[in-house]
Amino acid sequence: MNQLKRKTKVKRKWKRSVNKVKKFRIGTRAMNLGMFIIGWFLVVGIAVMYVRGFGMKTIISNDSMVPTFQEDEVLKINRFIYKITSPKRMDTVAVRMGETKSNVYYVLRIIGLPGEKVQIQNGKIYVDDKEISYPVGEEPIEDAGIANDIVLLQDDEYFMLCDNYNNSSYDSRSANIGVIDKSQIEGRVK
């Protein structure tokens, strides 16, 4: 009889511990599901903040960047990159003109960096008296604009050209536009 009591006690203890484990498993599953849902919302929230805060899109409305970008092409602007690094020569960037906060941007290529001298002579681009090759277009630049004379760039000033430079003058050669301040650069275009 004693042995039977022991077996019964062991069975009862075992059943109680099994019930505790089952309750723990159910609680753990619910907690895991809750953590999964919270994690999913966090990922979606961060992605939305990234797209709204650091990335954006724009549409090319003219042929100033042909052949690199075509008219009506949708471009992505990385607004975050220049918060951690400086613009580099030959980067294509979206530039806000004037004091407006509108969504109208010029897409241009950086030629001259702060502290450099830029000049266009005989259809060729010179930076600090050294000829640089332009990555697009073989023909010489017909209209040097203000870069016919030496343009000395101050701190945070950039000299920019459009890729279709002989058919468009919406760039730093124009006296109406001139050099571009870093604060006008919205981001790098891809």
Automatic annotation (TrEMBL):
CDD domains, alphabetized: S26_SPase_I (cd06530)
Top class in the EC scheme: hydrolase
Keyword line: Hydrolase, Protease
GO biological process, one term: signal peptide processing
Gene Ontology MF terms: serine-type endopeptidase activity; signal peptidase activity
Gene3D superfamilies per UniProt: Umud Fragment, subunit A
Main location: membrane
Matches recorded under SUPFAM superfamilies: LexA/Signal peptidase
Entries under InterPro entries matching the protein: LexA/Signal_pep-like_sf, Pept_S26A_signal_pept_1, Peptidase_S26
Entry GO CC: plasma membrane
Subcellular localization, as worded in the UniProt entry: Cell membrane; Membrane
Pfam families assigned to the protein according to its UniProt record, in alphabetical order: Peptidase_S26
UniProt name for this protein: Signal peptidase I
Species for this entry: Frisingicoccus caecimuris
